[in-house]
Write a structure and sequence with these properties.
The complex is a heterodimer. Chain A is an alpha/beta fold. Chain A has a seven-stranded mixed sheet, sandwiched between helices. A three-stranded antiparallel sheet of chain A has the order 10-12-11, with helices on one face. In chain A, helix 2 packs antiparallel against helix 11, helix 5 crosses helix 6 and helix 11 crosses helix 13. Chain B is an alpha/beta fold. In chain B, the strands form three sheets. Chain B has a seven-stranded mixed sheet, sandwiched between helices. Chain B has a domain of 254 residues: 3-Layer(aba) Sandwich (Aspartate Aminotransferase, domain 2). The radius of gyration of chain B is 26 Å and the shape is globular. The chains are: A alpha/beta, B alpha/beta. At the A-B interface, helix 1, helix 2, helix 3, helix 4 and strand 1 of A face helix 1, helix 2, helix 3, helix 4 and helix 5 of B.
C-alpha cells in the first residue's frame, strides 16, 4: 500500500458509487479450516448412494464405465490441470499436442478427417451441428428421429429457436424402432439443412438403414449428421464409412467419470471439406512447424472462426470448453488401442445381451420392445405384469438395485417401459441380482 | 535461468508396437459367453466395423511416460505467475481437487432417484443460494458449462422476457461496448440479436451520450463487464442502468471480472438483471487447459421463471429436481451442470467465508494496482485511459511507442516474457488499446513474485531498446521456439489430425 501511495484498501474502491457499496458482510457460513471443510463436504457426499453401494442400470447420455488409474493420474498432472487455454503455444506444447492427439483419435474412431478439441456435451454439440448445417446449406429445417433423448431434443430446440430453424421429427417403425423411411421421404425437402440420426439410438438399438438415410439426405442437398456413443465404435461401422458429413457424440464414457452428469465431453467431427471446416464451432489444434521450418509443433488453428477474433460473426460463442476431459479421453483411447476398444464393445454387448435374455424370460416382462440388435441399452416393458415401472423401481431400490430410466412420460406409446443400461462394469453377479430381484418383485405382485 | 522441458516427443501414433496395450477390459464371464453366443454376428454385416480404428498400441507405462513428458512441456499456475488478463488465473486449492475425486461424487448417475443423491443436491442447492447472495440476484441456475454458455443463456432469458411481454418482434438489438469480451457479441448473435457497439469515452468507460443515442425501443439489453476489461469500474453504472431500463431493455453482467468486487459491491444491487459467474475464474477451480469450467447465471425475481430446467428445490427436508416450470427457456445442455467443477467452488466458498472472499477481492485489486504503479514507471509501457484512477483486478498497458520506435510489438514482448519462465499477459485485448498487454495478477501471488514479474518486464523493455533481436527472436527457453501459425491455418498446409497428416504427406 505504501508503494502505491494509499493508506487504506478502501481508497482503491472510491470509484464505486457509495449507494452500491455493500454495507454488510455477505451472508455466508463462517470460514472453515481445511480439515473442517473436508469433513463437512465428505459427510454431505456420504449421503449419496453410488454405484459401489448398488448396481445402477442407468445410461441415457451418461454412462457408468471404468476409468483406468493411468487416466486419473495424467489428468491430475497440475501442468495440465492448472493451465489456461493455450494462447501462447510455445509454452503450452504439452496441452496442444495432447489435444491434437485427442482430435486425431476421434477422427480414427468416427472415420472423419477433422475433429475439434471439444464441445460441452452431446446435446450442445448437436445444437451447434444443426446450426452449422443451416449456415452451410442456407436452409431452415432439420429432421431428427422421434426416438431421440428428450434432453438432446430440448437442447437442440433451445439452440435453433433464436435463428428460426424448424425441427421436424421422423417417426419409427413400431416393430423394429428403425427410422420410418417413408416418413423421412415425405418430410425431407429443399428446405432441409440436415438429417440427424443416432447410432446406437437413444433406446439402445442399432439403426441399420444408414446408407439409405445418407443417400436420401444427400440427394436433397442436406447434410447427414450422426450422433454416436463412441464405445460402440470398436464393433459398429463408423459414420464416416456410411456418408456422415458431421459426427457428434458423447465422449464421457472414454475415461471420464459420471459426476451426476457433468462435466461431459461433446464430440464434434466433420469431413475434410474446407467450406464445412470454416463453419465449424470450437477450437481446433493444428500441427505446424517452427518459423524456421525445422521442428514440428502445435498451435490453435482457424481462429478467425472464433469469437475472440470474429466477435458477432463467429461460428459460435464457445470459449472455455472441456479440454481436460478430452485429454482424459485421449489417454483412455491410447491405453485401450484398437483391440481394447473392440473388446470393450464386445464386453458391453455380451453383458447387455445376457441381461436382455435373463429379463425377457421373466413372466410378463418384455425385453427389448423393438426387434433390432441392441448395443448397451435396451427397453424393458412391464405391460403384461400387474405392476408399473414406478413400482418396480421402488421395489428394486429396496433390493439395493437401481433400475433403468422411466420412459413412461417420454414415450407414452411404449406403455410401461424403462430404459436399462449395461456396461463392462456390470458383472454377471450384478445382472443376476437384477434378474432375481425382478423375479421376486413380480412374483409378489401377481 | 528458465528452461522448459524439451522432450523430443513424437505424436503418439508413431510410438508403440502392434499388439501392445495399456489396459485390459474386464473379461466376459464364461457363463455369459455360453449363454449369449457370438453377439457380434448378430450385427448386420453392413453395420459391422471392417477396418479397426488406427489407434496407437502402447503399454501402460509408455502411455504414462508420453503424457507425462507432454505435461512437462506445459505451463500452469502451479509453476508460477500467470497474469492473463480477464482469465483470473488464481491458485486452485489442492483440497478441492481431493474432494472432487471422491467416489461419492464420481460414481453417481444423473438419473438416480433423488433420494439417493441428497448429499450432492444439497451442495448444489446451497451453492446456488450462496452465488445469489454474492451477486445480489434472486435465483441462480448452475446449468451453463462455461462463461460463454452462461452468456448464451442470459441472452435467451432476455429473449424470453421480451417475448413474454410481446415485444420480441421489435426488440432486436443488443448493445455491447467496444471494450467487451468477444464472447458478448458472439453470444448475442447466437441468441438472434443484432449487435450494436457503443464506443468508450476518454476514460475507457461506456460513453453515456453514445449509449443514449444507441438505446431505443429496439433495445433488448446491454451486456456490460464491470469492472470493465481495462480494469476500470464503470462508475456511471447507475446512469447506464437507467438509460437501458428506461427504454425497456435488460442489463446483463459479464462476470469475468467479478473477483475484484467480491463482498464490496453486487451486480444485482447495481441494477443488473442477469449475471453470469465464471466459476473457474472467481471461485478457484482449475482451468484444465481450456476447461471444464462452469458459468452459472443469476437473475432478478422477475426473470426467475425463465431459468432452465430442472431447478433444485428444497421443501425444508428433501432436495429434488423441479421440471415444472412452464415459462422456462428449456435446456441448454444435458443434465444439471458441471457438477464436479461446482463442488470445488462449494468447497472454496466454504473455506473462505464472507471475510475470506472479501479479502480475495481486496488483495487482487491491491496486486493489480501495485503492478500498475510499478510498470507505469518503465519506459516502453504506457497506461492508456483514466490516469490517476485506481484499477480493479487488472490493468492494461500499451506498447505502441515501442512498436513505433523499435518495431517491437506486444506479441514480441509476450514471447520474451515466456523466456524468463512466466506466462505472458493477454495481448491485443481489449481492442480499444493498441498493442495491448492485459495484466491480471490475482490475489494468489506474494509480493516477491509480483516484483519478479516487474523486474522481468523492466528487463524486457530494456532489451527491446538495447538488444531488440533477443526480443524479436523470443522465445528460446520454451519447449519450442516461435511457431508458424499461418501455416497452421492455411487450407493447403494445415494438419488437423494425424489422418490428415498421413493423407497429405503420402505421395
Amino acid at each position: 500500500m505504501k508503494q502505491i501511495g494509499i493508506q487504506s484498501i478502501e481508497e482503491l474502491y472510491v470509484d464505486i458509487p457509495p449507494k452500491f457499496r455493500l454495507k454488510r458482510t455477505l451472508n455466508l457460513p463462517s470460514p472453515l479450516s481445511e480439515h473442517e471443510a473436508r469433513t463437512h463436504v465428505e459427510s454431505l457426499l456420504s449421503k449419496n448412494k453410488t454405484q459401489r453401494d448398488m448396481p445402477i442400470f442407468l445410461g441415457a447420455g451418461c454412462w457408468p464405465h471404468y476409468v483406468p488409474a493411468a487416466v486419473e493420474a495424467i489428468v491430475q498432472r497440475t501442468e495440465f490441470l492448472t493451465s489456461y487455454t493455450p494462447y501462447q503455444p510455445e509454452i503450452s506444447q504439452g496441452m496442444l499436442q495432447a489435444l491434437f492427439e485427442y482430435q486425431s483419435m476421434i477422427c480414427e474412431l468416427t472415420a472423419m478427417q477433422v475433429a475439434n478439441c471439444s464441445m460441452y456435451d452431446w446435446p450442445s454439440a448437436l445444437g451447434e451441428a444443426v446450426r452449422m448445417a443451416a449456415r452451410f446449406t442456407h436452409r431452415t429445417e432439420a429432421l431428427v428421429p422421434k426416438i431421440i433423448h428428450p434432453e438432446r431434443a430440448a437442447t437442440l430446440q433451445t439452440y435453433v429457436e433464436p435463428v428460426g430453424l424448424r425441427i421436424k421429427s421422423v417417426s419409427y417403425d413400431p416393430e423394429t424402432g428403425q427410422l420410418n423411411m417413408e416418413d423421412l421421404k415425405t418430410k425431407i425437402s429443399e428446405n432441409t439443412a440436415a438429417v440427424y440420426i443416432e447410432n446406437p439410438t437413444y433406446l439402445g438399438f442399432v439403426e441399420t438403414q444408414v446408407e439409405d438415410i445418407a443417400e436420401e439426405a444427400h440427394d436433397k442437398g442436406a447434410l447427414f449428421i450422426v450422433g454416436v456413443d463412441p464405445t460402440s465404435l470398436g464393433i459398429l461401422e463408423p459414420p464416416g464409412e456410411y456418408g456422415a458429413d458431421v459426427v457428434v457424440g458423447e465422449g464421457q464414457p472414454l475415461g471420464n467419470s459420471m459426476n451426476l452428469g457433468g462435466p461431459l465431453l461433446g464430440i464434434f467431427a466433420c469431413r475434410d471439406d474446407m467450406e464445412l471446416i470454416r463453419q465449424m464451432p470450437g477450437r481446433i489444434i493444428s500441427m505446424t512447424t517452427t518459423l524456421d521450418g525445422k521442428k514440428v509443433g502445435f498451435c490453435m488453428a482457424l481462429q478467425t472462426r472464433e469469437q475472440h477474433i470474429r466477435r458477432e460473426r463467429a461460428t459460435s460463442n464457445i470459449c472455455s470448453n472441456e479440454a481436460l476431459c478430452a485429454v482424459a479421453s485421449a489417454v483412455y483411447l491410447a491405453l485401450l488401442g484398437p483391440q481394447g476398444l473392440r473388446e470393450l464393445g464386445e464386453s458391453i454387448m455380451c453383458r447387455a445381451r445376457y441381461a436382455i435374455q435373463l429379463l425377457d424370460r421373466i413372466g410378463g416382462v418384455k425385453a427389448p420392445v423393438f426387434k433390432s440388435v441392441h448395443f448397451k441399452e435396451f427397453t424393458v416393458n412391464f405391460d403384461q405384469t400387474e405392476t408399473t415401472v414406478r413400482e418396480v423401481h421402488e421395489r428394486l431400490l429396496q433390493h439395493q438395485v437401481h433400475g433403468g430410466k422411466d420412459l413412461t412420460k417420454e414415450f407414452p406409446d411404449l406403455g410401461e417401459t424403462a430404459l436399462y443400461c449395461v456396461t463392462e462394469t456390470h458383472s454377471k453377479e450384478d445382472i443376476d441380482r437384477l434378474a432375481r430381484a425382478l423375479e421376486e418383485i413380480l412374483r409378489e405382485e401377481s | 535461468m528458465f528452461k522448459q522441458a524439451r522432450w523430443d516427443e513424437p505424436v503418439i501414433f508413431s510410438l508403440g508396437k502392434t499388439g501392445r496395450r495399456g489396459y485390459v477390459v474386464p473379461m466376459v464371464e464364461e457363463e455369459i459367453k455360453s449363454e449369449v453366443g457370438d453377439v457380434k454376428a448378430s450385427v448386420p454385416e453392413k453395420l459391422r466395423r471392417k477396418m479397426p480404428p488406427k489407434l496407437p498400441e502402447l503399454s501402460e507405462v509408455e502411455v504414462v511416460r508420453h503424457y507425462t513428458h507432454l505435461s512437462q512441456m506445459n505451463y500452469g499456475v502451479d509453476l508460477g505467475f500467470y497474469p492473463l488478463g480477464s482469465c483470473t488465473m488464481k491458485y486452485n486449492p489442492k483440497i478441492d481437487e481431493i474432494l472432487a475425486r471422491s467416489s461419492s461424487l464420481t460414481s453417481i448417475h444423473p438419473y438416480q432417484d433423488e433420494r439417493t443423491v441428497q448429499g450432492v443436491l444439497e451442495i448444489m442447492y446451497k451453492l446456488s443460494q450462496w452465488l445469489a447472495e454474492i451477486t445480489g440476484t434472486y435465483e441462480v441456475s448452475l446449468q451453463p458449462a462455461a462463461g460463454a454458455h452462461g452468456e448464451f443463456l442470459g441472452c435467451l432469458i432476455m429473449r424470453a422476457h421480451h417475448k413474454f411481454n410481446s415485444e420480441l418482434e421489435k426488440r432486436t438489438e443488443l448493445i455491447v461496448p467496444d471494450s467487451a469480451h468477444g464472447t458478448n457479441p458472439a453470444s448475442g448473435t447466437m441468441a438472434g440479436f443484432k449487435i450494436v457497439v457503443v464506443p468508450s469515452d476518454e476514460n475507457g468507460c461506456v460513453n453515456l451520450e453514445a449509449l443514449k443515442a444507441a438505446a431505443s425501443e429496439r433495445t433488448a439489453g446491454l451486456m456490460l463487464t464491470n469492472p470493465n476489461t481495462l480494469g476500470i469500474f464503470e462508475k456511471d453504472i447507475d446512469e447506464i442502468a437507467k438509460i437501458v431500463h428506461e427504454v425497456g431493455g435488460l442489463l446483463y453482467y459479464d462476470g469475468a471480472n467479478l473477483n475484484a468486487i467480491l463482498g464490496k459491491a453486487r451486480p444485482g444491487d447495481m441494477g443488473f438483471d442477469i449475471v453470469h459467474i465464471n466459476i473457474h475464474k472467481t471461485f478457484g477451480t482449475p482451468h484444465g487447459g481450456g476447461g471444464p469450467g462452469a458459468g452459472p447465471v443469476g437473475v432478478s425475481s422477475e426473470l426467475e421463471k425463465f431459468l432452465p430446467v430442472p431447478r433444485i428445490a428444497f421443501d425444508g427436508k428433501h432436495y429434488r429436481l423441479d421440471y415444472d416450470k412452464p415459462h422456462s427457456i428449456g435446456k441448454i445442455k444435458g443434465f444439471y451442470g458441471n457438477v464436479a467443477v461446482l463442488l470445488r467452488a462449494f468447497a472454496y466458498i466454504l473455506s473462505l467465508g464472507a471475510e475470506g472472499l472479501e479479502e480475495v477481492g481486496e488483495v487482487s485489486v491491491l496486486n493489480a494496482n501495485y503492478v500498475m504503479e510499478k510498470l507505469k514507471r518503465i519506459h516502453g509501457y504506457e497506461l492508456p485511459y483514466a490516469q490517476g484512477r485506481p484499477r480493479k483486478h487488472e490493468c492494461v498497458f500499451s506498447t505502441k511507442t515501442l512498436y513505433k520506435e523499435k518495431g517491437i510489438r506486444a506479441l514480441h514482448i509476450a514471447k520474451r516474457i515466456l523466456d524468463y519462465g512466466m506466462h505472458a499477459p493477454i495481448t491485443y485485448f481489449p481492442l480499444i488499446v493498441e498493442e495491448a498487454l492485459m495484466i491480471e495478477p490475482t490475489e494468489s501471488y506474494e509480493r516477491e513474485e509480483l516484483d519478479r514479474f516487474v523486474k522481468i518486464m523492466k528487463r524486457v523493455a530494456r532489451e527491446a531498446y538495447a538488444n531488440p533481436h533477443a526480443v524479436l527472436e523470443a522465445p528460446q527457453n520454451t519447449a519450442i521456439p516461435r511457431l508458424d501459425e499461418v501455416r497452421a491455418s492455411h487450407p493447403k498446409t494445415m494438419v488437423l489430425s494425424w489422418k490428415m497428416y498421413l493423407e497429405r504427406t503420402r505421395p
